[in-house]
Structure prediction request, 84 residues.
Amino acid sequence: MAKVRVHIGSETDDNLRRRLNAALGRLGARRTFHWWGLGGSQEITQEKYRLPGGQVMVETETYVGITLIGDEDPVTAIQDELGA
Prediction:
């Protein structure tokens, strides 16, 4: 299965974060990993989810934004749920 990396928006967009969490719930995602780190002014969070059709990591990084990384089918399903 192809792996993809898709930037979906700003890390400061609280509405996007709410919509993403709701989309993950609707798709039956289960979080399997959570990591948070801080380096200088950069904050990064990585969360891995198992969904029907594969796995996705949601990476949130200061000045970079929110990125979906993982199997193509679940990433596309999340984008569809978000209306992207």
